[in-house]
UniProtKB/TrEMBL annotation, chain A:
The keyword Repeat applies. Gene3D superfamilies: YVTN repeat-like/Quinoprotein amine dehydrogenase. Residues 345-413 are annotated as: Disordered. The keyword Cell membrane does not apply. Residues 351-366 have a biased composition (Polar residues). The lineage of its organism: Eukaryota, Metazoa, Spiralia, Lophotrochozoa, Annelida. Residues 367-382 have a biased composition (Low complexity). PANTHER family: AT02583P (PTHR14107:SF16), WD REPEAT PROTEIN (PTHR14107). InterPro entries: WD40/YVTN_repeat-like_dom_sf, WD40_repeat_CS, WD40_repeat_dom_sf, WD40_rpt, WD_repeat_creC_regulators. This is DgyrCDS5126. Signal peptide: none annotated. Keywords: Repeat, WD repeat.
From TrEMBL, chain B:
It catalyses: Thiol-dependent hydrolysis of ester, thioester, amide, peptide and isopeptide bonds formed by the C-terminal Gly of ubiquitin (a 76-residue protein attached to proteins as an intracellular targeting signal). Its EC number is 3.4.19.12. It comes from Dimorphilus gyrociliatus. The keyword Protease applies. PROSITE patterns: USP_1 (PS00972), USP_2 (PS00973), USP_3 (PS50235). This is ubiquitinyl hydrolase 1. Belongs to the peptidase C19 family. GO terms for molecular function: cysteine-type deubiquitinase activity. Residues 24-370 form the USP domain. GO terms for biological process: protein deubiquitination; proteolysis; regulation of macromolecule metabolic process.
Amino acid sequence: MASSDGGKEVKTAFVTREGKYKLLPLSEYSKPTRNQINPPQYSPVRLSFIETNVDKSSELIFAFNSGRELFVYPYRGVRKAADLSKPIDKRSYQGTMPTSHDFNKGLASADSLPLLIGFSGGQIQLIDPLRKEVFNCKLFNKERQVDKSRVTCVRWLPGVQNQFVVSHSSGQLYVYNTDLQTTCTQPPHYQSFKHTDSVSVFTCKTKSTRNPLYRWVVGAGAITHLSFSPDGEHLAITSADGYLRIVHWLRQELTTSFRSYFGAFLHCAWSPDGYYVAAGGEDDLVTVFSMQQRRIVCRGRGHKSWINCVAFDSSLCKPLEYRLASVGDDTQLCLWDINEDVLRQPPPASRPTSLPTPNSGVQSTVSLAPPSSAKTSKSPLTNKFVNLTLGGDKKDEKKEHKRNISFTSKSGSTNHVKPLDDKVLGTPVCPRLEEVPLLEPLICKKISNERLTSVHFLEECFVTACYEGNCYTWSRPTSPSSVKDVT
Amino acid sequence: MGANESHLVKEIGSDQFPPNEHFFGLINFGNTCYCNSVLQALFFCRPFREKILQYKQQQKNQKKETLLTCLADLFHNIANQKKKVGTIAPKKFVQRLRRENDLFDNYLQQDAHEFLNYLLNTIADLLQEKSLTSKSAKGNNLSNHSSAANGSTAMANGPLLNKNEIVPPTWVHELFQGTLTNETKCMNCETVSSKDEDFLDLSVDVEQNTSISHCLRGFSSTETLCAEYKYYCEVCCSKQEAQKRMRIKNLPQVLALHLKRFKYVEQVNRYTKLSYRVVFPLELRLYNTSDDAVNKDRLYDLVSVVVHCGTGPNRGHYISIVKSHGLWLLFDDDMIDKIEPSTFEDFYGLAQDFQKGQSESGYILFYQSREI
Ligand SMILES: [Zn+2]
């Protein structure tokens, strides 16, 4: 059947002012079994890259999830074709599926590559694709006593090698220590630890330190994405309640927040210098927020549907000039130039607001080290064998997307989005449409027949991923002296 | 049925069950799911339900049976059930509907949007008639509305009211009526003329892999009138090329959006369904408002959705998903299930044109302004 999509052609190359970007068909990574359509319930395909140093040269490795599978491949860049026959690791799961993953940058080496994987059933697995034989996988929240809802994002804590944060669609996030006991047969009891505005922090109420170290309740909807600032000090949290909240990680406090024009925020990214946060979501807009000015500085309109991923291109970012990319359900890639003209625009003469006071900027010297983490830095490594089929509650999993769901009691709060009042409209937290510049994209191209879920910039190319599990490589404009087309 | 009831109560949790709320499935009288799905969507549109129940209170002695009295009886009946969950037969309502309109007097599947349109217009007529007779005004000069022709290019499904100032707006208009402004700019003299048009719901064209916001913007995109479609300019006193666009000037309290998923294909001489994936958020503002709109950044919440399942307008099935006290429920005739918003993914449509299989796709969306 012919496409009835207005005959819109899928672009394999496009030109911007810096030159021509080209799709490299040989550098396409995908799951070996093609042409099967993923059910709509499948999770967006995410990309994780890691650089490992072998001798003096560095090697790129990347992971992506697709349906029930997770793949780890050497990323061979723009000069070498992808070799799909030799994955570093390939895992298939039953009863649950991978939703998010993150390599441990601090521990990555030529022979070790700790990789965290979050799952739709709420579990989190720690694997090492380079030490499959000797490394015993760990499975956190295996019994689903901590949180039964879908994992939406996992991230290693910056600068801490044995702790990670995981967000769930229940609207909660948890901090785990990988050296502590993973099992949790009883639902944990929590005690309130810290409470600011829409962010509450709890610790486990036990004599000895156990996982999870902390539980955060954030906002009034599912958490959709997490992103640490380049200096590791702040965590940006996007939520289905329409807010992006920026918390000071060590102080465990809300620093600031801003609001979508409407609907959920689905993804966010920091500018390389940490001065700006970009977000995209269900209002079809990209929104750029200034950390220094604590206000939304501009919005961008070009997408025809929800935005699934935003990313700054660090090689084209310099002070007061930023290059942002976004991809979405409309199968389009948009590139945005955010320059001085936009960033220097005075804020709209708006009424005084109740913005959270900007933090003093004084570096907190209080180190809120998780309770007694030092004592357990060496884990007992009793290493129970963890089955690859994360079997926890298969029945529940299967039923998850059918209508006749019998919901067992949920842990923690539910994920109903409570309507928030509309009082923030017209404030720097959510300016009216005409109050901040509304940018047009530099380019806006349909680059796929499938919905796009990810975009990631590398030195000599960028990579996009689509819903069906294909990862495409786009070469950057080349200077005349450098290598020509890859064949 | 009994199993279903207790099942739902258990699922929601008896302590979590909304107080004074009733979830009653509607029995199907032979392809009446188009009717059931719209009735449920309207029942859970709170301001509409309240007005209907008020009407019931005021009309205790009404003898004459109308579609409105039948609807009021049905809603009253549901709202006053002892049980929280169950099923009910909308028999009287369906009989009345079949008696009043030939279109629905059969056992065929009907278009849910046509039914919604007919129902709202009929209620508005009856209310106006009543307010006129109660004022002992002149005879009934209300136009007899035919339901909006399916597949027509008419995009604003307005009450074709004679703009007779005597006719007071009813609560149907207060809830659903918005105003479009139709701006035409003559390319010769650049004069802009605008004409306002009221609507009770908006029909929007759908495109593959887009959002409802995008479809609404497409609805308001600028159209050039040229060649045989030239526009007669009063200033130039001749036919001229012109640019036309239609934007929303007055935003309704309840925004009903009809996705034009049924497209007439001449080659096959029938309607086919566009199962395109069109996403709709739980929260919405409009981008296609006119510059002089007063309430242009009104924030809407999704309250109910009529979903079409299957391949064509005269086949397939209708269900509805509704929100009640923060819970989302799926009504499939007499069956009710609690669902999570994360499963709405199943009701956006199919992301790929060649994708086959069951297409359950949002057909009518009801958004309610947060202010009311
Ligand atoms: Zn003219």
